[in-house]
Amino acid sequence: MALVFFILSPEYAADSLLPRLRKVIRDTLALAPGGSASHTEEEIQKTNSEAMRLLAEILQVANDAEVEGRSSKINHHAIVDAAGTLRRIANQLSAIATGRILTPLPQLDPATESARQQVLNAIRRQLKTWLDFFNGAESLSATAARKMAQAKSLHDLANPIDEFSSRLEGGPFAQMKSWTLEQRRAMLAELQSMRQLESLFSELNQYMADIPG
What global pTM score does this model have? Predict the structure, then answer.
């Protein structure tokens, strides 16, 4: 069996990684508010559980890549780091989507609602660019991956979050003055999750760029 696996018909770690990585990115996208899996608690839990299962499989692929060495064409350390960060991103997006279901919030003014939506749009763009990359012909090119990561700006997510935060906190917090305590807590929890996502995506871009080895 070892002869068949390693010589006659090997399944290289990269071949095993890419479909799983693409699927977990799609699942993470689906968890963002407005995504296909964000409309009910059941959908959120099911999709998040599937993402966690895939991430566990990706960690096993990292072990395989370590055994294969350079022939695997991928960096097992970067895979482990990226998987951990994707897990935290999926959980944060699940928390935001679940919070919106459990505690429906009054409408903010149009400019603030637009700024809030721009944060989610920026998050989707971050995930979509990596999904497109790992779907493309250069998915195992270290040069192409690092070039794409370098093209990303630290401000891509920070600016919309800052805009939303400044509008929400203006007054101070005048727009939430008539809200219940639970509603205020839910909105501030969402803003805190966005801040954490800003840091997580900065890490993810670095780790994703290092996966092709």
Answer: 0.92
**CA angle, residues 54, 97, 44, in degrees to nearest 5:** 40
Instruction: Look up residue 179 and give its DSSP letter.
Output: S
| Residue bearing tokens 């990292």 | 62
CA gap 155, 145 in Å, rounded = 19
Q: For tokens 């501030």, what's the residue?
A: 188
Q: Where are the domains of the chain?
A: 11-210
Burial class (CB in 10 A: 0-12, 13-18, 19+), 166: exposed
Token pair, residue 145, equals 């991956």
Q: Are 43 and 74 in contact (CB under 8 A)?
A: no
pLDDT in tens, 128-162: 999 999 999 999 999 999 999 998 887 899 999 99
CA angle, 8 then 135 then 151, to 5°: 125
* 1-14 CB burial, b ≥16 within 10 A, e <16: eeeeeeeeeeeebb
Q: What is the CATH number of domain 11-210?
A: 1.20.58.220
